[in-house]
Amino acid sequence: MRRARRRASPGRLVGSRAFLDHTRWALRLAWETGPGLALGLVAATLARAVVPVGLALVLRGLFDALAPPAGGAPARPLGGWLVLGAALAFLQIGSALGAKYLARRLQDEVNIRVNTDILEHAGRLDLATFEDPRFLDVLDRAHHNAAGHVMQVLTGGLSAAANLLQLVSFVAAVAVIEPVVLPAVALVGAPYLWVQGRLARAAHARERDRTTRRRWTRYFVRCLTSPQTLAETRLLDLGPLLMERFRRIMAEFRDADRGLLRRRLVAGAAFASLSVAACFLLLWRVVSRVGAGTLTLGDLALFGAAALRIGTLIEETTGSLAASLERVLHVADLREFLAVRPRMTTVGTGRLAAPRGAVTLEDVWFTYPGQGTPALASVSLEVRPGELVALVGENGAGKSTLAKLVARLYDPDRGRVLIDGVDARTLTLADLYRLIAVVTQQPARYEASAGDNIAYGDWRRLLGDGALVEEAARGAAVHDLLKSLPLGYDTMIGRMFGDHDLSGGQWQRIAIARALARDAVLLVLDEPTTALDVRAETDLFAHLRELARGRTTLLISHRFTGALAADRVVCLAAGRVLDQGSHQELLGRCPPYAELYALHQRLRAEPA
Asked: Please, what are the domains in the chain?
């Protein structure tokens, strides 16, 4: 898809030029994925297309051999026609089986390529892109049977081409017998093709318009079936409410589909009536000419077989073209996704030769997409290499946002974030991310072994190195827990594929071990103790300096135990830095900080 992507143009399909562009893109993609398979599929499909006409001509030859026209040439041997007919029958069977085999092989290859490219492209997009619900609709449309749509453009196009070839062959064969066939086919087929094209566009527009509601239905299903939400959903008795909302959306889809199905039924019935009427009117003319002696019984046999087949071919060709049009519209949705570019537009190329972990924010402003109030406003801050800095403030003060900007999950709207004096936007993301270890407020729970959950912190270095994994686990005080599991570090944890799950606090300690496992100079701990009990929290902060040894550390915590262990405390409010200094200094000169600390002490002093 690399070559094809450069020429992709986003947006919905409009007009014949866009139709041809998207069709060429899909066909080129299938060809580049498996040229041998695609060529074989084309050959097998075209072979199938010519066989019916050949069999009809064999039938004519047999009739004329049995009953040659008066004064005509002597009858040819029947054996020759029968041998030719048998050969064509074997060709039809072989090409059908070959086409099915090659199509499935090519589908598997295209499926791997398209879905891999979707994931690779998603990996190049930044976090802000995935937080935009409009993009999630684009992603959902692209992911919906993307490989199938690409393949169906090829197979549907080949089917339409094969049917069209058969149609032209049959019409050419019988037009010699009855020339009126040509205008009859045009008068019946052209309107039907136009109607089917309109219905295909309507079907795609309907699917596109219901993307958001489809995501809602999947959300309701998750709420009713996911272990993460099921307990609270049951306790709140939300099941009937969510099921009713699910049913309402699905009923809307059903009613809309009924209307489209009725239109297709009416169009199909009208076409069938016209084609049957035209077929038998023309057949009546041919029978009359046979009776008059101007045509032979072989001509009648050929025309009878061909006339019935022509009506079917018009319907199949029209259906294939309409289906291909709808699939091409879905391919346009895939290309729309592949044309999305990251919001962090600066692509860095630099690297730090000897990173030390110094962090500087210079007049940084940042507003989340869709929000009117800045999450950070004119923030300037300097963190020295190896320093442990605690970020303190109420909810919404901007602490986590500041950490995300330092980790370059977002770029500031204004100002700069410097790592060792170098603008983070000039560094490659891969190099920057190697310098940083992060524990988020809701760390990931990977469905993997306990050891792999830690090794994922630096999987290229740690997978298979049990000693380093165990060292990180000891640092996060989770080694004894993991050793006690049935298979120790090899125990699968998580309920999706394993039989063992951990508590929230235990998962958080694994996340801390995962961060410690990284060979990083900058450690960001965003509320690392939210799921820990008092003993575990106290133990973590007692060893915090040892755990962060040699790393610059940003600690975000509502609990002041971390602030007491920090070299410096930065107090934020409403996205701005109010003051910074030691814990004792801020108690004396920063009233909001002193107020928060007093409240914290009062809550700790209250009896349980």
From this structure: 11-338 (1.20.1560.10), 357-435+553-608 (3.40.50.300)
Residue 492 host element (H or E)? strand 492-493
Closest C-alpha among 499, 496, 494, 530 to residue 512:
530
Reported confidence tier of residue 248, pLDDT bands at 50, 70, 90:
very high
Residue 171 Cα to chain centre, angstroms: 44
Classify residue 145 as left (phi > 0), alpha (psi -120 to 50) or beta. left
Rg (CA), the chain: 35
The model scores a pTM over 0.90 = no
Longest dimension (CA), the chain: 124
Query: Shortest CA distance to 76 belongs to which of 55, 90, 56, 60?
Result: 60
Q: Which residue has the tokens 């040439």?
A: 73
Kind and range of the H or E element at 571? strand 568-573
Q: In this predicted model, what pLDDT tens digit does every residue of 496-554 receive, in sequence order? A: 887 888 888 888 889 889 988 888 899 998 887 776 767 777 676 666 777 777 889 99
Provide CB contacts within 8 A for 459, sequence distance 6+.
452
Alpha helices (runs of H) in 10-132, residue ranges in sequence order: 15-33, 35-66, 78-124, 127-130
| Burial 157-189, CB ≥16 within 10 A → b, else e | bbbbbbbbbbbebbbebbeebbeebeebbeebb
Cβ–Cβ < 8 Å for 422, 466: no
* Other C-beta atoms lying within 10 Å of the C-beta of residue 122: 15
Q: Are 522 and 437 in contact (CB under 8 A)?
A: yes
E-assigned strand segments in 319-465: 359-366, 376-383, 388-392, 414-419, 422-423, 436-439, 448-449
Q: What type of residue sits at position 68? A: P
Q: What is the mean predicted confidence (pLDDT) over 78-82? A: 76
SS3 labels along 495-556: CCCCCECCCHHHHHHHHHHHHHHCCCCEEEEECCCCCCCHHHHHHHHHCHHHHCCCCEEEEE
Cβ contact 517:474 at 8 Å:
no
Identify whether the C-beta of residue 14 lies closer than 8 Å to the C-beta of residue 127. Answer: no
Please give the single-letter amino acid code of residue 559: R
Does residue 410 contact residue 344 with C-beta atoms inside 8 Å?
Answer: yes
